[in-house]
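thread: overnight batch results

M.L. [08:02]
morning all. the overnight job finished for the chain we discussed friday. pasting input first so we're all looking at the same thing
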Amino acid sequence: MKGLLLAGGHGTRLRPLTSTGNKHMIPIANQPILFYGLKQLARVGVIEVGIVLGPLREGIREAVGTGESLGLKVTYIEQGPPRGLADAVRCAREFLGGEHFVMYLGDNILENGLEPFIELSRREHADAVVGVTPVADPHRYGIVEMDGDRIVSIEEKPRNPRSNLALVGVYVFSPKVHEVIEHLPLSNRGELEITDAIRTMNSAGLRVAALRVFGWWKDTGAPEDLLEANDLVLNSLPPAAFVRSGKVHEGATVSGNVALGVGSVVESGASVLGPAVIGRDARIGPGSLVGPGVAIGNQVELVGCSVRRTIILDGARVVGSVGICDSLIGRNSDVRGHHTRDRETSLIIGDGSRVRL
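M.L. [08:03]
and the structure it wrote out:
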């Protein structure tokens, strides 16, 4: 079985997040989103992985490389002009050959991994396995209508949803999907929709099995989804994952599950409350209140501020009497505050931004 990971925008309606760059490379708990899918593929023994690159591909090749550090053998596949998820599969047909494959959307994070998908595929000898889970806003997703274990209908981003069961961003396909995709018409959005391919397979009598996914799942398509995913991951990591390799000065307070990278320092008068991860060569200066629910990148400086439930990327600075909450701070940004920390501010700012509060 091979793996297919889609990264970098594959539809005609691209969703660049902010000027923080490729959203697949934005860190969740200080690890690029893309790596969660890659590691889950490696965990179930799917070693040969094709990464289909869309237009928003910045940093992917540099970070993943050959995949050897992740226990994978990675092949990069160019999609060309993006025409949807099924088009991305079509572009990868030569790589996939005649094998079953796992398709993983690179901006998804799934708590309970891929094992249930692969087990169901093998047990049912399925031509397609889809994961479904209830969502509060079904108009945002591909929606599946079920009658018991039987799929009744599948519709992409319906105006009038027939259920609240959304397709999660993981699929297992047999090679029969390729012939279906070759004959798919473009949708009203001008795309080759994977939902149309699955619906066609189901209508043609091929075996399409639905797996009800338990545990959390996040499609990190919006800033608030990234922040929620960061919170979920931090709260689900085992205590052993929080390694303190940096220095905590006398007079500083560090409590709960806190990871502190090499060369980082928590200075006297600063407080860090877990769960929190802090990268390399970061400075948590006097008067800072950090956490819970924070992911702080490398070479970040925080002085005199309050920060919680926030992702701060490499090289950023937050200095002064300012409270930051539910925020995404881009690389090498500079935030300065001169009001009380009790009045919290939510910021979504891109790389190199300058903000004065």
